[in-house]
Every structure is written in structure tokens, then in C-alpha cells.
Amino acid sequence: MLTIIALFVKKGFFPLDKQLELWDKHWSPELSKQIVWLSGVSSSFEKAEETLKRIGRVNVSDSSVWRQVETWGPRFQQLEEEALKQGEQPLDKQERKQKVTQTAGTKGVAMDGATIYIRDEGWKELKVGCTFDVEIQPTKDKDTGRWQDKAHAVNNQYVAYLGGPEQFGKMVWGLARRSNWFGAKKSIVLGDGAVWIWKLADHHFVKSEQLVDWYHATEHLGTAARLLYGEDDLVRDCWYEAQKTQLFIGQAEKIAQHLEDQATDKPPAVADALESEAGYFVNNYERMAYQTLQSAGYPIGSGMVESGCKQFKARFDGPGMRWSRPGAERLLPIRAAVMSNNFDTVWEQVYHLPQN
Asked: Which of 33, 63, 193, 329 is the 20 to 30 A CA-CA neighbour of 185?
């Protein structure tokens, strides 16, 4: 960075200081904003420091980046808490109007979990929620090579919570309300087989369709195929493809019955595993109407939230990362704002919050 010395007053200053409004070692709002943004974009505070130095020509240490998150993170949390309280309020006039007009097309919500390491606690589940709009786009089928119109998630908005499902459910519901949920003509909830997801769906999204992620379900089919046919690749793959077709057209109950029948003459360990897979399909068959819901214009995969989990993991589960709970919780809403592509909007709200 260029330093200019005024010889007659024997005082040095940085020209960039004026541009960034850095006087008396105070951070300007604009520089604070960019530092906090980089803390959410980068894979580590060290990477944020490097980017500031190489691209911005600003020397800010990784510890200073961390301190900016320590300063501004609580404000992001405060905004999140206020949004949560608003989500618990009765419908306002605009939302009641949305329910009548329903001009927002199809909307969806997806939920999943990822693990991060918290000091003194160990590995903890980070619950991730995503709300999205559904848009029909031409898509090339991986198997046939043909182009088909399929539903895709767009305008994804994310939220994450390091804790139990009840509070997380309120956060997801609040996010959905802010995303014009009541204006949707129809909606869907996507997730894997986790019981807590469907309890939240039943509580908060009563009128929405429910669907177990297609790829998660086919993974269970693959497990069953290996249990039944082991190393016999040809027979195993033929069975898998046939059952995948049955699953797609809504025959999950029949698959479960077949697995239970096959378990009767298998060794105990294999039989138990097959019965477990059968139970998965029995417990979720009502959420496995893939052909019907895909034809109705819904996505059948939860890639939007799985991608979200990976993005949170990339920031919070890097090599050697061990977080304090407060440290992780301060950065989570910042990362979520970056992933939701609305950091600038959120920052304006955060910046004008009254100080506690």
C-alpha cells in the first residue's frame, strides 16, 4: 500500500484511508461490509485476509476479520431473531391478500442436516433449510439423452441452525413467510427420511405436498440390492433398475413387501438389514409419488438443500476447524445471506439496527 509523507508536517498517511474513511483506526462502514462479506464467502478467515490483500490492496489480518464478525455477527443474529418473532405473528394484511390472489406460482422448502465440530461438545448437527421458487426448464435426461421440461429450484434462500428441530422449524417457517409463501398456487416440502423433517412439515406446511428426495430413496434401493445379490453384478443391477422403475411409478409398498419376503430365508444379519430397508419404504411410501408429482410440475430431488449443506460444510468444516458455539452462531447467518445472494440487502437492515 502506498504511503505519502508530508515533509513539512512530518506526518504520514495512506491515500486509501480517505477513500475507505479509515480515521483513528476506526473501520468505515464500507470496509466493514466487505470484510464481513468476505468472511462469509471465503473458506476461512485466512483466505479472507489474503483476498483483501491481493485484490483490495488492504492489509487486514485474519484476526481483524474475525473481530469484524464478532462485532457484526450479533446484529445478523438480532435480525434473524426479529424475523423469527415476525414469523410467529398472525397473518398480516399483505399475506391475507396473497392467500386470495395466489400469483406466485409454485414454491418449495427443503430441509436437511450436516455436521460441524464444536469445541467441548464434539460433532453437532447443523440443520439447514432452503426455500425456493419452482421453474420449469428444458433438461437433458441423463439416461435417454432426450430433452424434457422439468422442474428446477430457483431463487434459493437459506437458513441454518445449530440446535433442535423446534426452533429450526420456526426459522424455516419465518423464511417461507418472507418469501411470499402464501402467494403460491401450490407448494412442496422435500427431505430425506429423517422423522424430524416430516414432523416439521406436518406442523408448519400443512397444505404442501411432501416428497422424499428421489436420490436418497434410490440409495436405499441400492443398499437392498447389495444385500440381496452381493457381488453378482448382472443380477443385482437388473433387479435395481426394475425396482427403481417400480419406485418411480409409486409402488414403494410393493417394494417393501418384496424385501420382507426375501428376508425370511436370509442369515440374521442380512435379514435384519433387509427389514430395516423395508421399513424405510413402509414409513415413507406416502411421500414417494415421484411420477405423479413430477408430472404435476414439482422437483423430485432435494439437491438445492444438499448443495446448501455442502456450502455450509465448506465454510465450517475445513481442515482443522474447531468452532466455539458462539463463534459458529455468529457466522452462520452471514454465510446464509451470502448463499442466498441477498447479503447487500441484509447488510442495509443490519447496519441500521439500533444498538443494544
From this structure: 193
Determine the Cα–Cα distance for residues 130 and 311; give it in Å rounded to an integer. 12
Determine the Cα–Cα distance for residues 321 and 328; give it in Å rounded to an integer: 11
With both helix axes pointing from N to C terminus, report the angle between 62-87 and 29-41 in degrees, rounded to the nearest 10.
90
CA 102 to chain centre: 26
pLDDT tens column, 82-96: 888 878 888 787 877
pTM here is 0.89
Q: Where are the domains of the chain?
A: 91-213+301-323, 216-287
Q: Residue 22 phi/psi, 5° resolution?
A: -95, 95
Grid coordinates belonging to 212: 422424499
Enumerate the β-bridge partners of residue 210: 189
Q: Which of 81, 132, 96, 97 is nearest to 111 (CA)?
A: 132
**pLDDT tens per residue across span 290-327:** 999 999 999 999 999 999 999 999 999 999 999 999 99
Angstrom distance (rounded) from CA 255 to CA 271: 15
